[in-house]
Amino acid sequence: MKKKTRKFLLQLHLYLGLIPGIPLLIVGLTGALLAFTPEIQRWDQPEFYRIEAKGKRMPQAQLVHKIKESYPNTRLNHISMFEEPEKPWTVFASGPVDGKKRFHRMHINPYNGDIQIDITNGGWAQWIESLHRNLTVGQLGRYIVGVSSALLIIISLSGLYLWIPFRKGSWRRLMDKGDALSWHNWTGIAVFPVLIVMAFTGITLTFREPVLHLVYGITASPELPPPPESTVPSISSQPISCKEAVTIFQQTFPDRIITGFSEPGNAKGAYLLHWGYEDDLNPHAWGKSYLDQYSGMVLGEINHYEHSLGAMYQQTWWMFHTGEFFGTAGRFVWALFSLTLPLLFLTGLVRWVGKNGRKNRLKMFFNRL
């Protein structure tokens, strides 16, 4: 590597590391906490998230019917039908609560059908997630986090390039003196692949549609078709109920497991059912089916796994971002990887401030801004 090129990359790596340093430090710390979201929810809101697994679960169609029967004016935007024994169903709904129409959550005990309305906005887990996604400052914060994630990819690639060829003696200095640069280098190399995955999926979280469009283009994948619409009858006709939609689907596809359910949003909308198979690798399932809300006929189906690489990414990027794809062990490992972001920032800062005894480096940096 030419000396001038190396010097330029060092400066690039340095300043790109400092500019998004604070946002990435926050993202790393909150990401580690979010890996334990189920545990935080059960601790913070046991009335919603801690249930006792007694007996058999009620049939899905019966549970959906009970929700609609109890709250007939509420639209079921999405029901997450979790399979974990001690996890309640979560319903994202819109409808009247305390005399006002609002978006809210409901939690359903799948063993006895108890329904609880949640207007707490998710408690501590939701606040940590908001800090992670947008620094709790709304759209501007989302953009800051998204751009910081993009810079993290450049930082990681430039750091890898600077590390090659391997710097002689760095392992010895790490073991003998705990040298900040050695800690920085070895940590960066060890977590490089995962940081790239976390950063790219983090960008997807902020700029979802443009990133997915890019992924479909890079992988030469055909994009998913738009959702089909129900055929509105020419004469007055009532839609089938949510219970009937679930029952029809289960009778038509007895080998499929429903993992999610959404009610139509208007007269032309269709019932949406997410489904998978027993022992699926993807805990959120690969399939979607659309049912005509009047006839119950299957209007269309999508299997993301069979469709294309782009569709597979669209269905799984969130699980790779959180480590959920690899189960409980994956969440724990991802939490450790998230903590390397603060470690990399701090060791890089220590190295930068202390290099050659130049104590005025922070002042020089801020003077250049």
Descriptive notes:
With 369 residues, the protein is of the alpha+beta class. It has 15 helices and 8 strands. It has helices spanning 3-18, 21-34, 37-44, 46-49, 60-70, 123-134, 139-163, 170-177, 180-206, 208-218, 242-252, 304-307, 309-322, 327-354, 361-368; strands at 75-80, 89-97, 100-108, 115-118, 257-262, 270-276, 287-292, 298-303. It has an 8-stranded antiparallel sheet with strand order 4-3-2-1-5-6-7-8. The longest helix is centred in the C-terminal third of the chain and has 28 residues, at 327-354. The radius of gyration is 25 Å and the shape is elongated. It starts with a helix and ends with a helix. The model has no long low-confidence stretch (mean pLDDT 87).
The low-confidence runs, each spanning 5 or more residues with pLDDT under 50, are none
Number of helices: 15
Topology as a string of helices (H) and strands (E): HHHHHEEEEHHHHHHEEEEHHHH
Oligomer: single chain
Structural class call reads alpha+beta
Summed over residues and divided by their number, the pLDDT gives a mean of 87
- Quote the distance from N terminus to C terminus: 29 Å
How many DSSP-defined strands?
Answer: 8
Q: What is the helix fraction of residues, given as a range?
A: 40-55%
Shape: elongated
Estimated radius of gyration: 25 Å
